[in-house]
Protein backbone atom coordinates (compact mmCIF):
# COMPACT_ATOMS: atom_id res chain seq x y z
CA UNK A 1 0.00 0.00 0.00
CA UNK A 2 1.46 3.36 -1.03
CA UNK A 3 1.95 6.41 1.10
CA UNK A 4 -1.04 8.28 -0.32
CA UNK A 5 -3.44 5.46 0.58
CA UNK A 6 -2.03 5.29 4.11
CA UNK A 7 -2.52 9.04 4.55
CA UNK A 8 -6.09 8.79 3.28
CA UNK A 9 -6.85 5.84 5.57
CA UNK A 10 -5.53 7.77 8.56
CA UNK A 11 -7.66 10.78 7.60
CA UNK A 12 -10.70 8.51 7.21
CA UNK A 13 -10.14 7.00 10.66
CA UNK A 14 -9.97 10.50 12.17
CA UNK A 15 -13.10 11.60 10.26
CA UNK A 16 -15.04 8.53 11.41
CA UNK A 17 -14.02 9.19 15.02
CA UNK A 18 -15.20 12.79 14.76
CA UNK A 19 -18.45 11.69 13.11
CA UNK A 20 -19.17 9.38 16.06
CA UNK A 21 -18.13 11.88 18.73
CA UNK A 22 -19.91 14.94 17.37
CA UNK A 23 -23.54 15.25 16.45
CA UNK A 24 -26.69 17.30 16.75
CA UNK A 25 -27.05 16.30 20.43
CA UNK A 26 -23.77 16.79 22.33
CA UNK A 27 -22.79 14.18 24.93
CA UNK A 28 -20.87 14.83 28.15
CA UNK A 29 -17.69 13.03 29.17
CA UNK A 30 -19.70 10.95 31.63
CA UNK A 31 -22.10 9.91 28.88
CA UNK A 32 -19.21 8.89 26.63
CA UNK A 33 -17.86 6.76 29.45
CA UNK A 34 -21.29 5.20 29.89
CA UNK A 35 -21.49 4.47 26.18
CA UNK A 36 -18.28 2.43 26.34
CA UNK A 37 -19.09 0.78 29.67
CA UNK A 38 -22.74 -0.14 29.06
CA UNK A 39 -23.69 -1.15 25.50
CA UNK A 40 -27.37 -1.08 26.44
CA UNK A 41 -27.34 2.53 27.68
CA UNK A 42 -28.89 5.49 25.89
CA UNK A 43 -25.53 7.12 24.99
CA UNK A 44 -24.31 3.79 23.58
CA UNK A 45 -27.42 3.63 21.42
CA UNK A 46 -26.68 7.11 20.08
CA UNK A 47 -23.02 6.36 19.34
CA UNK A 48 -23.13 2.81 18.01
CA UNK A 49 -26.63 2.49 16.53
CA UNK A 50 -27.22 6.01 15.19
CA UNK A 51 -23.98 7.89 14.52
CA UNK A 52 -21.60 5.01 13.72
CA UNK A 53 -23.72 3.28 11.02
CA UNK A 54 -24.53 6.65 9.51
CA UNK A 55 -20.82 7.54 9.27
CA UNK A 56 -19.87 4.14 7.85
CA UNK A 57 -22.70 4.36 5.31
CA UNK A 58 -21.42 7.78 4.22
CA UNK A 59 -17.92 6.32 3.90
CA UNK A 60 -19.03 3.41 1.72
CA UNK A 61 -21.34 5.56 -0.44
CA UNK A 62 -18.58 8.11 -0.99
CA UNK A 63 -16.10 5.35 -1.80
CA UNK A 64 -18.52 3.85 -4.32
CA UNK A 65 -19.05 7.20 -6.02
CA UNK A 66 -15.32 8.00 -6.04
CA UNK A 67 -14.50 4.60 -7.53
CA UNK A 68 -17.23 4.90 -10.16
CA UNK A 69 -15.99 8.38 -11.09
CA UNK A 70 -12.41 7.17 -11.52
CA UNK A 71 -13.54 4.24 -13.68
CA UNK A 72 -15.75 6.46 -15.83
CA UNK A 73 -13.06 9.08 -16.35
CA UNK A 74 -10.55 6.41 -17.34
CA UNK A 75 -12.95 4.54 -19.60
CA UNK A 76 -14.19 7.63 -21.43
CA UNK A 77 -10.86 9.49 -21.27
CA UNK A 78 -12.88 12.47 -20.13
CA UNK A 79 -12.05 14.37 -16.90
CA UNK A 80 -15.65 15.61 -16.69
CA UNK A 81 -17.15 12.11 -16.53
CA UNK A 82 -18.83 11.03 -13.31
CA UNK A 83 -21.28 8.30 -12.20
CA UNK A 84 -24.20 10.33 -13.50
CA UNK A 85 -22.85 11.02 -16.97
CA UNK A 86 -23.97 7.66 -18.37
CA UNK A 87 -27.40 7.76 -16.78
CA UNK A 88 -26.82 5.03 -14.19
CA UNK A 89 -27.64 7.34 -11.26
CA UNK A 90 -30.77 8.64 -12.99
CA UNK A 91 -32.14 5.19 -13.83
CA UNK A 92 -31.36 3.93 -10.31
CA UNK A 93 -33.23 6.94 -8.90
CA UNK A 94 -36.12 6.16 -11.27
CA UNK A 95 -36.28 2.63 -9.86
CA UNK A 96 -36.35 3.93 -6.29
CA UNK A 97 -38.99 6.57 -7.10
CA UNK A 98 -41.19 3.95 -8.76
CA UNK A 99 -40.99 1.76 -5.67
CA UNK A 100 -41.84 4.66 -3.35
CA UNK A 101 -44.81 5.90 -5.38
CA UNK A 102 -45.94 2.32 -5.96
CA UNK A 103 -46.45 1.91 -2.23
CA UNK A 104 -43.87 -0.82 -1.62
CA UNK A 105 -41.41 1.35 0.31
CA UNK A 106 -42.70 -0.12 3.58
CA UNK A 107 -41.33 -3.54 2.56
CA UNK A 108 -37.76 -3.84 3.89
CA UNK A 109 -35.27 -3.64 1.04
CA UNK A 110 -37.84 -2.86 -1.67
CA UNK A 111 -36.48 0.59 -2.47
CA UNK A 112 -32.87 -0.61 -2.39
CA UNK A 113 -33.59 -3.55 -4.68
CA UNK A 114 -35.52 -1.30 -7.06
CA UNK A 115 -32.60 1.15 -7.23
CA UNK A 116 -30.12 -1.68 -7.84
CA UNK A 117 -32.42 -3.11 -10.51
CA UNK A 118 -32.52 0.31 -12.20
CA UNK A 119 -28.74 0.59 -12.09
CA UNK A 120 -28.44 -2.92 -13.48
CA UNK A 121 -30.85 -2.11 -16.31
CA UNK A 122 -28.87 1.02 -17.18
CA UNK A 123 -25.64 -0.93 -17.05
CA UNK A 124 -27.10 -3.61 -19.32
CA UNK A 125 -28.17 -1.03 -21.89
CA UNK A 126 -24.74 0.60 -21.79
CA UNK A 127 -22.98 -2.73 -22.17
CA UNK A 128 -25.23 -3.64 -25.12
CA UNK A 129 -24.57 -0.25 -26.74
CA UNK A 130 -20.81 -0.37 -26.15
CA UNK A 131 -20.61 -3.85 -27.66
CA UNK A 132 -21.88 -2.40 -30.93
CA UNK A 133 -20.36 1.11 -30.84
CA UNK A 134 -16.76 1.56 -29.65
CA UNK A 135 -16.60 5.35 -29.71
CA UNK A 136 -16.46 6.90 -26.20
CA UNK A 137 -18.16 10.03 -27.55
CA UNK A 138 -21.12 7.96 -28.76
CA UNK A 139 -21.30 6.23 -25.38
CA UNK A 140 -21.40 9.60 -23.63
CA UNK A 141 -24.20 10.81 -25.91
CA UNK A 142 -26.15 7.61 -25.29
CA UNK A 143 -25.63 8.05 -21.54
CA UNK A 144 -26.84 11.64 -21.67
CA UNK A 145 -29.96 10.53 -23.57
CA UNK A 146 -30.55 7.75 -21.03
CA UNK A 147 -30.10 10.17 -18.13
CA UNK A 148 -32.48 12.69 -19.68
CA UNK A 149 -35.14 10.05 -20.27
CA UNK A 150 -34.84 8.68 -16.74
CA UNK A 151 -34.98 12.19 -15.29
CA UNK A 152 -38.10 12.98 -17.28
CA UNK A 153 -39.72 9.70 -16.22
CA UNK A 154 -38.91 10.42 -12.57
CA UNK A 155 -40.42 13.89 -12.88
CA UNK A 156 -43.52 12.35 -14.46
CA UNK A 157 -43.86 9.88 -11.59
CA UNK A 158 -43.41 12.73 -9.13
CA UNK A 159 -46.02 14.81 -10.96
CA UNK A 160 -48.60 12.02 -11.16
CA UNK A 161 -48.08 10.73 -7.63
CA UNK A 162 -51.51 10.45 -5.93
CA UNK A 163 -50.06 10.87 -2.46
CA UNK A 164 -48.32 14.02 -1.19
CA UNK A 165 -46.50 11.85 1.34
CA UNK A 166 -45.05 9.68 -1.43
CA UNK A 167 -44.09 12.82 -3.37
CA UNK A 168 -42.24 14.15 -0.33
CA UNK A 169 -40.41 10.83 0.06
CA UNK A 170 -39.38 10.87 -3.60
CA UNK A 171 -38.12 14.44 -3.28
CA UNK A 172 -36.18 13.55 -0.13
CA UNK A 173 -34.64 10.59 -1.95
CA UNK A 174 -33.63 12.70 -4.93
CA UNK A 175 -31.88 15.22 -2.64
CA UNK A 176 -29.69 12.50 -1.14
CA UNK A 177 -29.06 11.70 2.52
CA UNK A 178 -27.61 9.09 4.89
CA UNK A 179 -29.80 10.24 7.77
CA UNK A 180 -31.33 7.44 9.88
CA UNK A 181 -29.24 4.77 8.17
CA UNK A 182 -28.51 1.57 10.08
CA UNK A 183 -26.05 -1.32 9.95
CA UNK A 184 -28.48 -3.01 7.55
CA UNK A 185 -27.78 -0.24 5.04
CA UNK A 186 -24.06 -0.85 5.50
CA UNK A 187 -24.67 -4.52 4.64
CA UNK A 188 -26.55 -3.43 1.52
CA UNK A 189 -23.72 -1.39 0.06
CA UNK A 190 -20.57 -3.16 1.33
CA UNK A 191 -20.78 -6.42 -0.70
CA UNK A 192 -21.72 -4.61 -3.90
CA UNK A 193 -18.86 -2.16 -3.42
CA UNK A 194 -16.44 -5.04 -2.84
CA UNK A 195 -17.61 -6.71 -6.06
CA UNK A 196 -17.30 -3.43 -7.96
CA UNK A 197 -13.78 -2.91 -6.60
CA UNK A 198 -12.78 -6.39 -7.77
CA UNK A 199 -14.14 -5.76 -11.26
CA UNK A 200 -12.35 -2.40 -11.36
CA UNK A 201 -9.04 -4.08 -10.54
CA UNK A 202 -9.61 -6.55 -13.37
CA UNK A 203 -10.41 -3.67 -15.75
CA UNK A 204 -7.44 -1.54 -14.63
CA UNK A 205 -5.00 -2.71 -17.36
CA UNK A 206 -7.52 -1.70 -20.00
CA UNK A 207 -8.04 1.72 -18.42
CA UNK A 208 -4.29 2.29 -18.37
CA UNK A 209 -3.95 1.27 -22.00
CA UNK A 210 -6.82 3.55 -23.04
CA UNK A 211 -4.91 6.51 -21.57
CA UNK A 212 -2.32 5.95 -24.30
CA UNK A 213 -4.92 6.32 -27.04
CA UNK A 214 -7.50 4.21 -28.81
CA UNK A 215 -5.09 2.99 -31.50
CA UNK A 216 -2.49 1.88 -28.95
CA UNK A 217 -5.16 0.11 -26.93
CA UNK A 218 -6.43 -1.67 -30.03
CA UNK A 219 -2.95 -3.00 -30.89
CA UNK A 220 -1.94 -3.88 -27.32
CA UNK A 221 -3.13 -7.47 -27.47
CA UNK A 222 -5.35 -6.99 -24.41
CA UNK A 223 -9.01 -8.07 -24.61
CA UNK A 224 -10.19 -4.46 -24.64
CA UNK A 225 -13.82 -5.31 -25.33
CA UNK A 226 -14.02 -7.47 -22.23
CA UNK A 227 -12.12 -4.92 -20.13
CA UNK A 228 -14.52 -2.17 -21.21
CA UNK A 229 -17.47 -4.33 -20.19
CA UNK A 230 -15.88 -4.99 -16.79
CA UNK A 231 -15.33 -1.26 -16.29
CA UNK A 232 -18.92 -0.42 -17.21
CA UNK A 233 -20.25 -3.13 -14.92
CA UNK A 234 -18.04 -1.95 -12.05
CA UNK A 235 -19.20 1.65 -12.42
CA UNK A 236 -22.87 0.62 -12.69
CA UNK A 237 -22.70 -1.59 -9.60
CA UNK A 238 -20.90 1.02 -7.50
CA UNK A 239 -23.30 3.77 -8.53
CA UNK A 240 -26.35 1.57 -8.00
CA UNK A 241 -25.19 0.59 -4.51
CA UNK A 242 -24.64 4.25 -3.59
CA UNK A 243 -28.02 5.42 -4.90
CA UNK A 244 -29.75 2.43 -3.30
CA UNK A 245 -28.89 3.50 0.24
CA UNK A 246 -28.44 7.27 0.01
CA UNK A 247 -30.38 8.59 -2.96
CA UNK A 248 -28.75 10.84 -5.53
CA UNK A 249 -25.56 12.58 -4.34
CA UNK A 250 -23.67 14.53 -6.95
CA UNK A 251 -20.20 16.01 -7.31
CA UNK A 252 -18.29 13.39 -5.24
CA UNK A 253 -17.68 11.07 -8.19
CA UNK A 254 -16.56 14.01 -10.30
CA UNK A 255 -14.25 15.68 -7.78
CA UNK A 256 -12.67 12.79 -5.87
CA UNK A 257 -10.50 11.52 -8.78
CA UNK A 258 -9.36 15.08 -9.55
CA UNK A 259 -8.15 15.67 -6.00
CA UNK A 260 -5.66 12.78 -6.16
CA UNK A 261 -4.92 12.47 -9.89
CA UNK A 262 -1.71 14.49 -9.68
CA UNK A 263 -0.42 12.27 -6.88
CA UNK A 264 -0.62 9.19 -9.14
CA UNK A 265 0.63 11.10 -12.20
CA UNK A 266 -2.60 10.59 -14.07
CA UNK A 267 -2.35 6.79 -14.12
CA UNK A 268 -6.01 5.60 -14.27
CA UNK A 269 -5.11 2.19 -12.84
CA UNK A 270 -3.35 3.61 -9.79
CA UNK A 271 -6.10 6.20 -9.38
CA UNK A 272 -8.85 3.74 -8.44
CA UNK A 273 -8.05 3.11 -4.76
CA UNK A 274 -7.10 6.73 -3.87
CA UNK A 275 -10.23 8.05 -5.62
CA UNK A 276 -12.43 5.64 -3.66
CA UNK A 277 -10.76 6.58 -0.36
CA UNK A 278 -11.00 10.28 -1.19
CA UNK A 279 -14.69 9.96 -2.06
CA UNK A 280 -15.35 8.22 1.25
CA UNK A 281 -13.43 10.86 3.18
CA UNK A 282 -15.27 13.67 1.40
CA UNK A 283 -18.71 12.27 2.16
CA UNK A 284 -17.97 11.49 5.83
CA UNK A 285 -16.75 15.06 6.27
CA UNK A 286 -19.67 16.53 4.35
CA UNK A 287 -22.20 14.55 6.37
CA UNK A 288 -20.58 15.62 9.64
CA UNK A 289 -20.70 19.28 8.60
CA UNK A 290 -24.32 18.90 7.46
CA UNK A 291 -25.23 17.47 10.88
CA UNK A 292 -23.54 20.10 13.01
CA UNK A 293 -24.49 23.11 10.88
CA UNK A 294 -26.94 25.11 13.03
CA UNK A 295 -30.12 25.02 10.94
CA UNK A 296 -33.74 24.38 11.89
CA UNK A 297 -33.85 21.45 9.49
CA UNK A 298 -30.84 19.28 8.70
CA UNK A 299 -29.33 19.97 5.29
CA UNK A 300 -29.67 17.19 2.76
CA UNK A 301 -26.31 15.65 1.96
CA UNK A 302 -26.70 15.99 -1.81
CA UNK A 303 -27.49 19.68 -1.45
CA UNK A 304 -24.56 20.21 0.90
CA UNK A 305 -22.02 18.48 -1.34
CA UNK A 306 -23.15 20.60 -4.30
CA UNK A 307 -23.02 23.88 -2.36
CA UNK A 308 -19.58 23.21 -0.93
CA UNK A 309 -18.11 21.16 -3.73
CA UNK A 310 -18.99 23.18 -6.81
CA UNK A 311 -16.81 26.19 -5.85
CA UNK A 312 -13.99 23.83 -4.93
CA UNK A 313 -14.19 22.11 -8.28
CA UNK A 314 -14.27 25.50 -10.03
CA UNK A 315 -11.02 26.34 -8.24
CA UNK A 316 -9.46 23.06 -9.37
CA UNK A 317 -10.53 23.74 -12.96
CA UNK A 318 -9.12 27.28 -12.80
CA UNK A 319 -5.75 26.02 -11.57
CA UNK A 320 -5.69 23.33 -14.24
CA UNK A 321 -6.42 25.94 -16.91
CA UNK A 322 -3.57 28.13 -15.64
CA UNK A 323 -1.14 25.20 -15.76
CA UNK A 324 -2.26 24.39 -19.30
CA UNK A 325 -1.69 28.00 -20.44
CA UNK A 326 1.76 27.99 -18.87
The geometry reads as globular
How many helix segments? 13
Question: Which residue ranges are poorly predicted, with pLDDT under 50 across at least 5 consecutive positions?
Answer: none
CA distance, first residue to last residue = 34 Å
Number of domains: 1
Largest sheet, in brief, is: none
Number of strands: 0
- CATH class (first level) name: Mainly Alpha
Helix content: over 70%
Secondary-structure element string: HHHHHHHHHHHHH
CATH topology: ABC transporter involved in vitamin B12 uptake, BtuC
Strand residue content: under 5%
The whole-angstrom Rg is: 20 Å
Q: State the fourth-level CATH superfamily.
A: ABC transporter involved in vitamin B12 uptake, BtuC
Can you tell me the CATH architecture?
Answer: Orthogonal Bundle
Mean pLDDT: 85
General description of the model:
The protein has one domain: ABC transporter involved in vitamin B12 uptake, BtuC (Orthogonal Bundle), CATH 1.10.3470.10. It is built from 13 helices and no strands. The longest helix has 35 residues, at 42-76. Helix 2 crosses helix 3 and helix 4 packs antiparallel against helix 5. It has 326 residues and is an all-alpha fold. 78% of the residues lie in helices and 0% in strands.
Amino acid sequence: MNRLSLILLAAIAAALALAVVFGESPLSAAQFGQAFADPASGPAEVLWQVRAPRAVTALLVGAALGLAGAVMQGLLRNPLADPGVLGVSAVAALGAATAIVGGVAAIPGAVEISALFGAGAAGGLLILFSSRVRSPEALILFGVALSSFAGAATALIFNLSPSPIASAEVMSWLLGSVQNRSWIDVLWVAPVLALSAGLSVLAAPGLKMLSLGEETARTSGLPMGRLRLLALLAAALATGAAVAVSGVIGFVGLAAPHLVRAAVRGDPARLLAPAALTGGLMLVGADLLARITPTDQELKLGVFTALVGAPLFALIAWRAAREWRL
